[in-house]
Amino acid sequence: MTTTGRSWAALTALIVAAGIVVQLIVTANGNDGFFPDNPDRVFNVFAYFTIQSNLLLGGTTVMLALQPDRPQSTLFRTLRLNSVLCIAVTGIVYHLALAPLDDLSGWAAVANFLLHSAAPLAGVLGWLLFGPRGRTGSRVVAWSVVFPLLWLAFTLIRGEFVGFYPYPFVDVTEHGYARVLLNCLLVAVLFLALAAGTTALDRRLHQKTTVER
Question: I need a labelling partner for 79 at 20 to 30 A (CA). Which of 136, 183, 191, 196 fits?
Fold first, then answer.
């Protein structure tokens, strides 16, 4: 990875960190939401897929910025692909389905922009422009499905006990399991389509880079 690529990775990590910190402060000092008191209100922030995908992106970009030539284990390659796919899904689903439901202002709007717009844009562009290349494949794609499935299982099981669902499309109380699972299937199709497209594009860009060398 080039020096510019490392700088982009560092900038992406800073965007993620700023977004999460601002969101935590806004949540801690607010009075809206399912949980009335802290620390439950603050801890609940981490139940959102948005936050989880940003944490994945921030963690992997920090590692790339600090050690761009790090050994590419299957675990790291899976986490890197996960970070790109999950942050892309976060941006797409938010702007297509959730943005019309929001009416934010002040620092809440700042956090929202950083987490749902700036971070997805920086994460996807960083992968497209700087890679690293040749790190995806069928095995990595298969493992990348595990994380969103674990998040979904956690969300549905926790929801049964506490009655909280972070997004309207996974709200079993409102829609029932059949509708929620259908909604999740549609998101899964989007995720797998992005995974297939990312793998094909990565292979093509890797071949192009190899030929140019």
Answer: 183
44, 52 in Cβ contact below 8 A?
no
Model confidence over 89-109: pLDDT tens digits? Answer: 999 989 998 888 888 889 999
Contacts 24+ apart (CB under 8 A), 14-18: 15/114, 15/118, 15/119, 15/122, 16/54, 16/55, 16/57, 16/58, 16/61, 16/114, 16/115, 16/119, 17/58, 18/114
- At position 113, the amino acid (one-letter code) is F
Going 21 to 24 to 30 to 34, the CA torsion angle's sign is positive
DSSP code of residue 114: I
What does the CA dihedral 103, 101, 14, 35 come to, rounded to 10 degrees? 90
Spatial distance between the Cα atoms of 61 and 45, rounded to a whole number of angstroms: 21
Distance CA(7)–CA(25), nearest Å, equals: 27
State the amino acid at position 99 in one-letter form. A
The pairs formed by 32-35 with CB atoms below 8 angstroms and a separation of 24 or more are 34/163, 34/164, 35/164
Closest of 116, 192, 119 to residue 149, by C-alpha: 192
Tokens read off for 82 = 């996960």
| Residues whose CB is less than 8 angstroms from the CB of residue 72 and which lie 6 or more positions away in sequence, other chains included | 132, 135
